[in-house]
Write a structure and sequence with these properties.
single chain; 105 residues; mainly alpha; 0% strand
């Protein structure tokens, strides 16, 4: 990716990750959970990232996704009092799945 097009693409990808405090940007490689209360799904998805700078294989992240989605759904219900079919809940959970898809690509 040493071409001008490659650098431009990287810059565009980096700019896409500037999302403020959005929790629905997993598709661009940005995951966030507000510190509103436990449980935290991110700690289950990528615990290594909280301990040190780490490269985590996409297959490992994928293997954790089902449990992470259960935790994220529980968080939506307990912290935000949202039902599973609430649009904000669905978007938050989709962001985790989108992030894992991006890791695999």
């Amino acid at each position: 990716m040493c071409t001008r097009t490659g650098r431009a693409k990287r810059r565009a990808e980096e700019r896409a990750q500037i999302t403020g405090h959005s929790v629905v940007q997993g598709h661009v490689g940005y995951l966030r959970e507000a510190y509103d209360g436990e449980p935290y799904a991110l700690e289950c998805l990528v615990p290594e990232a909280f301990e040190r700078d780490a490269e985590i294989p996409a297959a490992l992240v994928r293997s954790r996704l089902a449990q992470v989605l259960r935790i994220a759904a529980k968080r939506q219900a307990t912290v935000y009092h949202r039902a599973a079919d609430d649009e904000a809940s669905k978007e938050a959970l989709k962001s985790f799945a989108d992030f894992v898809d991006l890791c695999e690509r």
